[in-house]
Structure formats: C-alpha cells, structure tokens
Amino acid sequence: MKSLLAFIRKEMLEQRRSGKLIILGILFTVLGIMSPAIAKLTPWLMEMMAGSLAGNGLVFTSVSVSAMDSWVQFFKNMPMGLIAFVLIESSIFTREYQTGTLLLSLTKGLERHKVVAAKTAVLAFLWTVSYWLCAGITYGYTAFFWDNAIVQHLLFSMTCWWVFGLLAVVLMVLFSTMARSNTGVLAGTGCVVLVSYLLSFFSGLKKLMPTVLMDGTSLIYGMVEPKTYTVPLGIAAVMIPVCLAVSVSTFNRKQL
Questions:
Q1: Distance between first and last Cα of the chain
Q2: Cα separation of 141 and 87, whole Å?
Q3: pLDDT score for 65
Q4: Nearest to residue 36, comparing CAs of 148, 131, 128?
Q5: Given this model, what pLDDT does residue 20 score?
Q6: For residue 48, with 0-12 CB atoms within 10 Å meaning exposed, 13-18 middle and 19 or more buried, which class applies?
Q7: Contacts of 225-231 spanning 24+ positions with Cβ under 8 A
Q8: How far apart are CA 68 and CA 58, in angstroms?
Q9: Is there a contact between 248 and 118 (Cβ–Cβ < 8 Å)?
C-alpha cells in the first residue's frame, strides 16, 4: 500500500509540475461559466441580430431564457470538456514509455498492477474534481440568475455524465497499456465511443449504449424517466472494472 500511495503522490506531483492541473482547472472553470453566460446573453445577441433578420424578411420576437437554457448549454459543452481532458491526459503512460522512467520504478520493486491502479486513480480523481467543479460553477451562476428548481432530474443527469467520463478514463487507461503513442490511445478511445454513439441510432440498441448517458437534456426536460438509463448505467458499471482487469493483464505482459 505504501508503494501505491507513493506512486500516486509522484503522479500528482508530475501533474502539478507539467501544468496540467492548472490547465484543467482553468478549462473546466471557463466551461462552467460559459453555460449560464451564453444563456444570459442569448436575448441580447438576438436583439443585436434583429436588424439583419428583419432585412431578410424574418420577424424578431423577444426571447426569454431560464435555468433550462443554461443546463442545456452545460450538456452541450461537456463533450468538449471530456475531449480536452482525454487530449491533455493521454500521455500519462506513453510519456513514461518514451523516457524510460516507468522501467526504473519497476526495477525498484513497484508491482505492475499498482502502476495501473495508481494512474487510474489519479485520472479518475482529476476527472471527478474537474467535472464537479464545472457543474458546481454552472449550478451556482444558474441559481443566481434563475431558479434551478424547474430543472427535472438534475443531479441524476449530471451523475450520468460523470459516469460516462469515468468510462472514458478507463478506456484511455486500457489503450495506454496497449499502445505506445498518444495517437494510439486517442484513436482507440475515440473509436469505442464513436461506435457506441453510432449504434445508439438503432432503436433496438440505443437503450444499451453507454453514450446515452450523455443525453442529459432529455432528462432535465422530463422527456425520459431515469429508469431509462438503468441499463446503460449497468453496462458502464460492468465495463469499468472489466477494462481495468484487461488493462492490468495487458500491462503485465507488456515489454517496456
């Protein structure tokens, strides 16, 4: 346990030294502010465009916004946040393959499964803090301008998105144990998410795909019930430990 905790501390120190902690903090803070800001500015933007719309024969009517618009924007912004997170953290294994520092740690007695566990724990922690920081900022500003009480199943919809992010994290770990370059990690993670997204277009498969967890808009409008997400949540909950088990098995056989 001591070696695991020591490696986790080493990983967090590397995150701080590389500036990734600051980048993630700034990125998700901006995303959290953007959601209510865009919603708040929408009527003003529409008024600015009223003249050109009238010139094209379109009649401008006043636009009213509410907390719903802020949260819709939040769920539109989160894919950008997750993509940025994966891009920033995709080198967590491959950087050490290239520099040889991981091999040095292993020769000193660190067990391979602890390397996978430590790096996964760090990534999961960073994703959790980043995501809920963003959600908390959005919640605070939205509550200041409007009333969050009108949003249905808000906490559940946010939790579903967080779980999907955790799935993306373990997929990134899995492909990090297979590939030696960032390109391989990004391609593998992106392909799995893309295939899941494309399969969700088939009505018979949609309710099974974890990518359904990203559809927070339907939840907050009450278009679907939380029980609709039970199966995708269950599949994601199964995939996460399976991916971790495969990651450990693959890393144990990997030539460094």
A1: 24
A2: 28
A3: 81
A4: 148
A5: 93
A6: exposed
A7: 226/153, 226/156, 229/156, 229/160, 231/207
A8: 26
A9: no
Could you give phi then psi for residue 56, rounded to 5 degrees? -95, 10
pLDDT means per 10 residues in the chain (256 residues)? Answer: 83 91 96 91 70 57 80 94 94 84 77 90 96 96 92 95 96 92 92 90 85 92 91 94 94 81
Contact, 89 vs 126, CB < 8 A?
Answer: yes
| CA nearest neighbour of 87 among 155, 202, 210, 182 | 182
Q: What pLDDT was estimated at residue 95?
A: 86
Task: Provide the greatest CA pair distance for the chain.
Answer: 74
With H, G, I as helix, E, B as strand and everything else as coil, classify residue 142. Answer: helix
- Amino acid in position 154: L
Q: What is the pLDDT of residue 52?
A: 61
